[in-house]
Protein backbone atom coordinates (compact mmCIF):
# COMPACT_ATOMS: atom_id res chain seq x y z
CA UNK A 1 0.00 0.00 0.00
CA UNK A 2 1.33 3.44 -0.87
CA UNK A 3 0.37 7.07 -0.89
CA UNK A 4 1.52 8.63 -4.15
CA UNK A 5 1.11 11.92 -5.94
CA UNK A 6 -1.56 11.23 -8.56
CA UNK A 7 -0.11 10.56 -12.00
CA UNK A 8 -1.77 11.24 -15.36
CA UNK A 9 -2.70 7.57 -15.75
CA UNK A 10 -4.49 7.49 -12.37
CA UNK A 11 -7.24 10.05 -13.02
CA UNK A 12 -9.74 7.62 -14.52
CA UNK A 13 -9.53 5.47 -11.40
CA UNK A 14 -9.66 8.49 -9.09
CA UNK A 15 -12.78 9.67 -10.91
CA UNK A 16 -14.33 6.20 -10.53
CA UNK A 17 -13.86 6.49 -6.75
CA UNK A 18 -15.63 9.86 -6.74
CA UNK A 19 -18.56 8.45 -8.70
CA UNK A 20 -19.00 5.72 -6.08
CA UNK A 21 -18.49 8.01 -3.10
CA UNK A 22 -20.92 10.85 -3.88
CA UNK A 23 -24.49 11.34 -5.08
CA UNK A 24 -24.78 12.41 -8.69
CA UNK A 25 -25.31 16.11 -7.92
CA UNK A 26 -21.76 16.25 -6.52
CA UNK A 27 -20.05 14.39 -9.36
CA UNK A 28 -17.42 16.32 -11.26
CA UNK A 29 -16.07 15.51 -14.71
CA UNK A 30 -12.69 13.80 -14.86
CA UNK A 31 -11.35 16.92 -16.61
CA UNK A 32 -12.44 19.20 -13.74
CA UNK A 33 -11.08 16.75 -11.19
CA UNK A 34 -7.69 16.48 -12.87
CA UNK A 35 -7.57 20.26 -13.20
CA UNK A 36 -7.11 20.46 -9.41
CA UNK A 37 -3.58 19.22 -9.99
CA UNK A 38 -2.82 22.37 -11.99
CA UNK A 39 -3.35 24.30 -8.73
CA UNK A 40 -1.70 21.64 -6.57
CA UNK A 41 0.83 19.66 -8.64
CA UNK A 42 2.36 18.01 -5.55
CA UNK A 43 -0.68 17.94 -3.26
CA UNK A 44 -3.12 15.58 -4.95
CA UNK A 45 -2.58 12.08 -3.61
CA UNK A 46 -4.05 8.65 -4.06
CA UNK A 47 -3.90 5.48 -1.99
CA UNK A 48 -2.90 2.47 -4.06
CA UNK A 49 -3.35 -1.06 -2.90
CA UNK A 50 -4.01 -4.38 -4.62
CA UNK A 51 -3.01 -2.75 -7.90
CA UNK A 52 -5.74 -0.13 -7.80
CA UNK A 53 -6.72 3.28 -6.42
CA UNK A 54 -8.83 2.84 -3.26
CA UNK A 55 -9.04 6.49 -2.24
CA UNK A 56 -7.72 9.97 -2.88
CA UNK A 57 -7.25 13.42 -1.42
CA UNK A 58 -7.09 16.42 -3.76
CA UNK A 59 -5.69 19.57 -2.19
CA UNK A 60 -4.12 22.80 -3.36
CA UNK A 61 -2.84 26.09 -1.94
CA UNK A 62 -5.51 28.81 -1.66
CA UNK A 63 -6.26 32.00 0.27
CA UNK A 64 -9.22 33.77 1.82
CA UNK A 65 -12.68 32.83 3.07
CA UNK A 66 -14.30 32.13 -0.31
CA UNK A 67 -13.53 28.52 -1.25
CA UNK A 68 -12.82 27.52 -4.84
CA UNK A 69 -15.89 26.35 -6.76
CA UNK A 70 -16.98 22.73 -6.93
CA UNK A 71 -17.40 21.38 -10.47
CA UNK A 72 -15.51 24.16 -12.21
CA UNK A 73 -12.14 23.91 -13.93
CA UNK A 74 -9.75 26.69 -14.88
CA UNK A 75 -9.78 28.46 -11.53
CA UNK A 76 -6.82 30.69 -10.89
CA UNK A 77 -4.82 31.28 -7.79
CA UNK A 78 -1.90 33.64 -7.57
CA UNK A 79 -0.30 35.24 -4.58
CA UNK A 80 0.61 34.03 -1.14
CA UNK A 81 -1.40 31.02 0.08
CA UNK A 82 -2.78 31.12 3.63
CA UNK A 83 -4.24 27.62 3.51
CA UNK A 84 -4.06 24.21 1.93
CA UNK A 85 -7.60 23.75 0.63
CA UNK A 86 -8.79 20.14 0.72
CA UNK A 87 -11.02 20.02 -2.32
CA UNK A 88 -12.12 16.43 -1.94
CA UNK A 89 -11.26 13.26 -0.08
CA UNK A 90 -13.06 10.01 -0.79
CA UNK A 91 -12.50 6.33 -0.14
CA UNK A 92 -14.21 3.47 -1.96
CA UNK A 93 -17.21 2.42 0.17
CA UNK A 94 -15.87 -1.11 0.72
CA UNK A 95 -12.50 0.23 1.90
CA UNK A 96 -13.67 2.70 4.57
CA UNK A 97 -12.92 2.44 8.26
CA UNK A 98 -9.39 1.15 7.67
CA UNK A 99 -7.54 4.40 8.32
CA UNK A 100 -6.89 5.28 4.67
CA UNK A 101 -8.46 8.72 5.06
CA UNK A 102 -6.44 9.38 8.23
CA UNK A 103 -3.24 8.48 6.39
CA UNK A 104 -4.08 10.79 3.47
CA UNK A 105 -4.94 13.60 5.88
CA UNK A 106 -1.61 13.09 7.67
CA UNK A 107 0.15 13.38 4.32
CA UNK A 108 -1.63 16.69 3.62
CA UNK A 109 -0.76 18.10 7.05
CA UNK A 110 2.91 17.18 6.69
CA UNK A 111 3.05 18.62 3.18
CA UNK A 112 1.44 21.91 4.32
CA UNK A 113 3.90 22.22 7.20
CA UNK A 114 6.85 21.68 4.86
CA UNK A 115 5.51 24.44 2.59
CA UNK A 116 5.06 26.82 5.51
CA UNK A 117 1.27 26.77 5.09
CA UNK A 118 -0.27 26.88 8.55
CA UNK A 119 -3.93 26.06 7.89
CA UNK A 120 -6.08 23.40 6.29
CA UNK A 121 -9.54 24.30 4.99
CA UNK A 122 -12.40 22.43 3.39
CA UNK A 123 -16.13 22.43 2.77
CA UNK A 124 -17.73 19.53 4.64
CA UNK A 125 -20.67 18.11 2.68
CA UNK A 126 -23.31 15.43 3.21
CA UNK A 127 -23.14 15.74 6.99
CA UNK A 128 -19.41 14.94 7.08
CA UNK A 129 -18.74 17.88 9.46
CA UNK A 130 -18.83 15.47 12.43
CA UNK A 131 -16.10 13.40 10.76
CA UNK A 132 -13.98 16.51 10.28
CA UNK A 133 -14.59 17.71 13.84
CA UNK A 134 -13.11 14.44 15.00
CA UNK A 135 -10.07 15.26 12.88
CA UNK A 136 -9.67 18.58 14.73
CA UNK A 137 -11.46 20.88 12.28
CA UNK A 138 -13.88 23.61 13.40
CA UNK A 139 -16.42 25.72 11.54
CA UNK A 140 -15.01 28.95 10.09
CA UNK A 141 -17.27 31.72 11.41
CA UNK A 142 -18.01 34.94 9.56
CA UNK A 143 -17.23 33.64 6.07
CA UNK A 144 -19.51 34.47 3.11
CA UNK A 145 -22.39 31.99 2.57
CA UNK A 146 -21.42 28.87 0.63
CA UNK A 147 -22.86 28.33 -2.86
CA UNK A 148 -26.17 26.43 -2.79
CA UNK A 149 -24.85 23.51 -4.86
CA UNK A 150 -22.87 22.30 -1.83
CA UNK A 151 -26.16 21.43 -0.17
CA UNK A 152 -27.86 22.75 2.97
CA UNK A 153 -25.60 20.80 5.33
CA UNK A 154 -22.35 22.23 3.92
CA UNK A 155 -19.97 23.81 6.43
CA UNK A 156 -16.72 25.70 5.80
CA UNK A 157 -14.17 24.26 8.23
CA UNK A 158 -10.55 24.88 9.12
CA UNK A 159 -7.72 23.62 11.26
CA UNK A 160 -4.24 24.85 12.12
CA UNK A 161 -1.44 22.42 11.33
C1 LIG B 1 -15.19 10.58 4.98
C2 LIG B 1 -14.34 9.39 4.47
C3 LIG B 1 -13.29 9.93 3.49
C4 LIG B 1 -13.66 8.71 5.67
O1 LIG B 1 -12.92 7.60 5.18
P1 LIG B 1 -12.51 6.35 6.13
O2 LIG B 1 -11.50 5.54 5.41
O3 LIG B 1 -13.72 5.64 6.58
O4 LIG B 1 -11.86 7.10 7.35
P2 LIG B 1 -11.02 6.56 8.56
O5 LIG B 1 -10.87 5.05 8.46
O6 LIG B 1 -9.79 7.37 8.70
O7 LIG B 1 -12.00 6.95 9.76
C5 LIG B 1 -13.18 6.23 9.92
C6 LIG B 1 -13.99 6.86 11.05
O8 LIG B 1 -14.65 8.02 10.55
C7 LIG B 1 -16.05 7.87 10.71
N1 LIG B 1 -16.76 8.50 9.60
C8 LIG B 1 -16.63 8.22 8.28
N2 LIG B 1 -17.47 9.00 7.57
C9 LIG B 1 -18.12 9.79 8.46
C10 LIG B 1 -19.12 10.82 8.34
N3 LIG B 1 -19.61 11.19 7.15
N4 LIG B 1 -19.55 11.41 9.48
C11 LIG B 1 -19.07 11.05 10.69
N5 LIG B 1 -18.13 10.09 10.87
C12 LIG B 1 -17.67 9.47 9.77
C13 LIG B 1 -16.27 6.36 10.74
O9 LIG B 1 -17.49 6.05 11.40
C14 LIG B 1 -15.05 5.89 11.51
O10 LIG B 1 -15.24 6.06 12.89
P3 LIG B 1 -14.50 5.08 13.98
O11 LIG B 1 -13.03 5.37 13.85
O12 LIG B 1 -15.09 5.51 15.28
O13 LIG B 1 -14.87 3.68 13.56
C15 LIG B 1 -15.23 8.34 3.76
O14 LIG B 1 -16.28 7.98 4.64
C16 LIG B 1 -15.80 8.77 2.43
O15 LIG B 1 -15.19 8.58 1.39
N6 LIG B 1 -17.02 9.34 2.44
C17 LIG B 1 -17.68 9.81 1.21
C18 LIG B 1 -17.03 11.05 0.67
C19 LIG B 1 -17.05 12.15 1.71
O16 LIG B 1 -18.04 12.37 2.40
N7 LIG B 1 -15.91 12.87 1.79
C20 LIG B 1 -15.79 14.00 2.66
C21 LIG B 1 -16.52 15.15 2.04
S1 LIG B 1 -16.31 16.63 2.96
TrEMBL record:
CDD domains named among the record's database cross-references: NAT_SF (cd04301)
InterPro entries: Acyl_CoA_acyltransferase, GNAT_dom
Superkingdom of origin: Bacteria
Gene3D superfamilies according to UniProt: 3.40.630.30
Residues of the N-acetyltransferase domain: 1-161
Pfam families tied to this protein: Acetyltransf_1
Protein name from the UniProt record: GNAT family N-acetyltransferase
GO molecular function: acyltransferase activity, transferring groups other than amino-acyl groups
Signal peptide interval: none
Amino acid sequence: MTIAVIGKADWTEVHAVQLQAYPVELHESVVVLADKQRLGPDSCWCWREQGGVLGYLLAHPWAGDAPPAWGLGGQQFTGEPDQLFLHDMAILPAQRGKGIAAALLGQASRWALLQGIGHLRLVAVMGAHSYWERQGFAEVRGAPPLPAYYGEEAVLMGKAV
